[in-house]
Amino acid sequence: MSVNTKTKTTLIKGKSLSEGTILIVFLVLFALLSLAVDGFLTANNLSNLVRQTSINGVIALGMTFVIVSAGIDLSVGSVVGFSGMFAAILMTQAGINPVFSIIMALIAGTLVGLLNGILIYDGKVPPFIATLGTMTVFRGVIMLISGARMVSGLPESFVNFAQTSILGMPSLFVVWVLMILISSFIMAKTRFGRNIYAIGSNTEAARLSGINIRTNMYMIYGYSALMSSIAGIMLVSRLANGIPTAGGGYELDAIAAAVIGGASLNGAEGSIIGTVVGAMLMSTLRNAGDLLGIDPFILQILIGALIVAAVLIDQVKKQNK
Amino acid sequence: MAEREIVRMEGITKEFPGVRALSNVNLTVKKGEVHALVGENGAGKSTLIKILMGVYQKDKGRIFIEGREVNISNPLVAKEYGLGAVYQDITLAPHLSVGENFFLGKLPVKNGLIDWPTVFRVTDETLRKLDLNIDPRKRLKDLPVAQQEMVAIAKMIYEKVKLVIFDEPTALLTNEETQKLFQIINKLKKEGVGVIYISHRLEEIFGICDTVTVLKDGEKVATVPVSEVNEDRLISMMVGRDIKDIYSIKHYDTDEVVLEVKNLTREPRFRNINFKLYKGEILGMFGLVGSGRTDIVRCIFGADKADAGEIYVNGVKQSLNSPIDAIKAGIGFLPEDRKLQGLALQLPVMTNTNIVIYGDISKFGVIDGREEKVRTNKYVKELNIKTPTIYQKVKKLSGGNQQKVVVSKWLNAESKIFIFDEPTVGVDVGAKLEIYKLFENLTSQGASIILISSYLPEVMGLAKRILVMYEGNCTGIVNRNEVTDEDVLRLASGLSIEGNNCMQEGIR
User: Which of these, A76, A215, A262, B210, could form a disulfide with A18 (CB 3.0-4.6 Å)?
Assistant: First the structure.
């Protein structure tokens, strides 16, 4: 067994209590639903399920970086809408080719994250307030650049992307998996990843250890915005239109996924794997609820309860230790 | 003095999964008695206190209060029995006024409104009884730590406490404030209140306590009148071995200057500081809390910016604008509050050890996982850090071992100048010895140390030269062979000493 794998498992073990629990909960739920619910374990439904999860899942990855650093990013939903709308306008009204449009939109979206980083580090505005501000501002920007109207007539190649399969898997899911791999790698293996945990655990100690907090804060919020921008492009492709309200409220799902997956809003706790399971758990519940014909309002109550329960169980465990 | 007992703990046993924290421990505190509880970290002092205060439940044993057996099932019960504790960190509401803190949870009401005049009058009266001149309208957090502690004590007295537990009460206090605290403890004593006094500073125990109980590895070693033991005897009971002189370390100082500070100023904290640090030297920095010691070293480390002045490392002028620059220049800083500034507590030993040098062991930002592990294991071994694995979260280690983790991080970064700010606060005698041994080790390898301490015996014992601070001014750099303890204290209080030829410029 190589040193690296050992390190990795132990690192995961070190903060896996809640992740382990949530993974078991998810697997049990999945098994039960497969047995009990007609039409759950079908290729069609599963592909639908992962497609639904993928977009929120990508956002939640970036959110995990932010939460582990003891921050919060409420602007992700607006960044989703902004980058998607920006790409849609470039492709239609400006007639720029899709690849170039996407790149421009990703850059534009990431710049919002940079702005968050500047506000939070240089302006010393608490993350909650800074990102609440950019969330509101950029929703306004979306309305302004789109005239609050739907942008349609997207190139066919772009719209088709969300519908295609790669290696037999839905393309959006493939994008998510790719982002999961990249994000896990960064978190577990890179200096940046360690810095995120260090900043989340103790910013002052990190600073006194020679970590450049400014650069890292820019990178953390930039990464979150980049993930949201990618999700924004995925969403436009899926909806086949640029929709001004797209992405609204997504920030809460992303936070919920991370928290259910064991991330602590106090920072330094949480992992990509946990967040992925958290995101899967939420969308599986929604999907099963649809199949079973459960009142969506009841479903909402259940998911809310799940978020609180996940944190409660974690707290109880900590107290018993 | 009435010899009646307040608290009697009999045969207290407590097990945690895998460890027996206390076994069959007895402790009796009488009215008007100051009872010291000493022992190394992990000896069971805090467990015993927490059982008394209702934080933990005992597995076996009985507790009597004024002769009546009681069951202290939670902290509220302890409070009702008149037991109070002053912890290292003050457990009051910092954003509220002193008066509000006094009446926290039971503010007097008149006509449906809070009766502020009564709040402030009663608070003021109680504080005055203790000769404390504190404005009850002030917000608690605007007071110095020492006064906050006094408020906490006054509050307990107001609540007619029978027994007060002091857990390292002087850790954050200056000498003057400590004296004030002792006066208050003496007052408590006269009023027949019992006191349990926990401190690592043995001379305090000889100064204020009547009886001492020594714990070691969860067992009671002895309970003896303080008058019947001396410091050496007490230490050997605590660690189970004899110690001749805990400060006897070898010195390796040379006359090669590694750090020179010229006219360093950061108003209003300190001004015109000049000193040299030599290779292999331990330079002491002594002064009351708030005299500017920590501010100076923070500037040298680039954590704060100086208004004026120059810093030379190995003769080369440095512009230390951030800790990153200082680290590059070979300076390592072990801050006063290691939990708040020195360590990432929720993270493993491994991350903390390598946190400074991840850049050096990464390629394109990707960490060499093997190197990371190898380095951690090396320092865990070298520094004898007691941890089950290198993946253990640092918050689960003892104070001494946490301090070693901070040291490991700077050794790992190949620092040549180590700034230790109060390195032995809150660590036990055994760990202290190891830290002193570490100083010897570091200096023998050519490193230099700036040692800040509020504890005079430590500074005088370990450093040959001592820089003394008073209100932001350097009042002298003295050679320990040429001065007495009293001289240093005089300098630290802004008084002159006879024949002081080391007085520096910049004294107003």
Answer: A262
